[in-house]
Amino acid sequence: MRRIAAVCGVTKVTLYAHYRDKERLYRAVMDGHLASMPSGVLDMHGVADLGDALRRITDGIGRLATDGACQAFCRALAHSGPASDGYREHWNAMLAPYFRLAEDAFTKASSRPTHAADAEKFLRLLLTEHGLPQGDRPVSGPDATVALFLRAYAAPLPGTREF
């Protein structure tokens, strides 16, 4: 608390007068970040195909990743211990619409039963690319990632030839 007070330019007594302990200070900071973060709502109206849907989801994750409050929240979450469990649940709830939208997009695009794993892998790759926490969805494993890329490259694109 002494270091925090020094960085803030206040006395430790002042800090304790507002926040009785580190946990309350932590909650106040995290709640402030959450209140400032953009919502996870995406406009999926008029989505033409899988590519369009995935681009919109990618743009939504990109907006989260560039938001200052989201960056600060995720940094604090990454350096927090057990006290952060409730905030991990908030993060998971923020990611849930993206997972559902991706699952829905993959389901509409293919009759293959692997759409849930495809959606999960797609979002995990996006989150990793942006340095954001992964959430608590079950990890399907490396075989699902390989299968996703094999399906994506199984048929040549129109106007190209296979080597």
Helix content: 55-70%
* Uncertain runs: none
- Any idea how many domains? 2
Dominant shape: elongated
Radius of gyration, whole Å: 20 Å
Largest sheet: none
What is the total tally of β strands? Answer: 0
Give the CA-CA distance, first to last residue. 63 Å
By DSSP (H or I, 4+ residues per run), the number of helices equals 8
Mean pLDDT level: 83
Supply database-style keywords.
163 residues, 2 domains, 8 helices, single chain, mainly alpha
Architecture overview:
The protein is mainly alpha-helical. The protein has two domains: 1-36, no CATH class; 39-153, no CATH class. Helix content is 67%, strand content 0%. It is elongated, with a radius of gyration of 20 Å. Helix 4 packs antiparallel against helix 6 and helix 6 (85-109) crosses helix 7 (115-130). The chain contains eight helices and no strands. The termini are far apart.
Report a brief summary of the structure.
With 163 residues, the protein is mainly alpha-helical. It has 8 helices and no strands.
